[in-house]
Amino acid sequence: MSKIVCLLIIAFAGANAMTFNTSSRLSNNNLAAENQFPYMVSIQRTQTAVPTRGHICGGVLITLQHVMTAASCLTVFAAGSWTPIANLAEYRVFAGATTLSNDADPNRVRSLARIDVHTGYLPASRLNDVAIITLSTPYINGTSIRALPLPGPLVGPQENTACTIPGWGTDGLTATATPSVSLKFASKYVYSQSLCQKVYANLAGQPNVFNSMLCSASHDLVSTGCLGDEGGPLVCDGLLSGILIHTNNCAPTSFPELYTRVSNYTVWARTVTGAASTFQPGVLVLVFALVQVFVSKFVN
Ligand SMILES: *[C@@H]1O[C@H](CO)[C@@H](O)[C@H](O)[C@H]1NC(C)=O
Ligand SMILES: *[C@@H]1O[C@H](CO)[C@@H](O)[C@H](O)[C@H]1NC(C)=O
Ligand SMILES: *[C@@H]1O[C@H](CO)[C@@H](O)[C@H](O)[C@H]1NC(C)=O
Q1: Is the CB of residue 177 less than 8 Å from the CB of residue 170?
Q2: Which atom of ligand 2 is least distant from the CA of 64?
Q3: Peptidase S1 domain spans which residues (predicted)?
Q4: Are the C-beta atoms of 188 and 242 separated by less than 8 Å?
Q5: What is the pLDDT of residues 259-274, one digit of tens each?
Q6: Is the pLDDT confidence value at 286 over 60?
Q7: pLDDT at residue 18 tops 50
Q8: What DSSP line would sit under 186-254, residue for residue?
Q9: What is the mean pLDDT of the chain?
Q10: Which protein residues are within 6 Å of ligand 3, measured from CB?
Q11: pTM here?
């Protein structure tokens, strides 16, 4: 985003009197404690042997074997169109520790078995910007690794609900910016949907805000998503409410960030993860009954 637009936004927010520590604007320097975000994962390119382990995006465990993230994190532009990344072996998922270099424990790392990009994903408008990774083997449930269940369909957070977003994103938008080795987090609140639509509509080159998207902003004006924070979960009142898809390019303003509204995709996500991983006692009872019918037919 250009400087002029940034300045306009700052003026819009009435925040032009504030000064910012640009070296700490990612998430206002809140370092996450171990086990604070046990559902948080880092999606990485395996070939990069650096302390940040090739981190490209955040993601969230919605079951112990499925990661929800942004489609834009898992698609590449090739031959004139966006397609899901082809070579799954080049990627891996890391979970269970706040420090990316802390990956000696094999229980923290999983390879990818499959990627499901939402079939309605439109890269230009960011519509349906959501994808699910199926891991080759599930993680082991524990205090440091735990799934954050999907919200009920169309259960959205109320305006002004307090939210949190964790991320390993960069501290700035320079060419040399690298992701943060340590997990940070920012406090957010759910932004007015109609105001967000107006803010975005008034800016050139910004996506439209659809109802299947959600906006959040920070009260402190310095906590903003940056490169590598995309795909991460916005958690509001303990519910998985958003997947970060669009930030203000690290600029510290009250400009709202854009998320895929997860509750619009609960039904889709359940079809991807399968009934067994969306634990519902009713479904299990039904399965049990069917097994009994099946068994009784063979026993008799
Ligand atoms: C800005 O943040 C960095 C990183 O935490 C810190 O080292 C530095 O002292 C801060 N600078 C100011 C002027 O507060
Ligand atoms: C993981 O463990 C927690 C705490 O014991 C439990 O509430 C949760 O249902 C477990 N999840 C799975 C998928 O087994
Ligand atoms: C998304 O969910 C909201 C309610 O949270 C609803 O108003 C809206 O119509 C839904 N949009 C789509 C495209 O399903």
Answers
A1: yes
A2: 13
A3: 26-274
A4: no
A5: 999 999 999 999 999 9
A6: no
A7: no
A8: EEEEEPPHHHHHHHHHTSTTPPP--TTEEEEE-TTS-----TT-TTPEEEETTEEEEEEEE--TT--SS
A9: 81
A10: 154, 156, 211-212, 261, 263-264
A11: 0.81
Q: How far is the CA of 154 from the centre of ligand 3 (A)?
A: 6
Atom index in ligand 2 nearest the CA of residue 63 equals 13
- The sign of the CA dihedral 202, 128, 260, 51 is negative
- Closest approach atom of ligand 1 to CA 24: 2
Residues in Cβ contact with 42 at an 8 Å cutoff, skipping those fewer than 6 apart: 53, 55, 57, 58, 59, 93, 94, 95, 100, 168
Within a 13 Å sphere around the CA of 255, how many CA atoms are in the beta-carbon half?
26
Question: pLDDT tens digits, residue range 156-197?
Answer: 899 999 999 999 987 765 556 778 889 999 889 999 999 999
Nearest ligand, CA of residue 24? 1
State the residue for tokens 């735990």. 146
Q: Kindly identify the ligand whose nearest atom is closest to the C-alpha of 152.
A: 3
Domains belonging to the chain, first-starting first, are 3-273 (2.40.10.10)
> How far, in Å, is the centroid of ligand 3 from the Cα of 100?
35
Closest CA to ligand 3's atom 7: 211
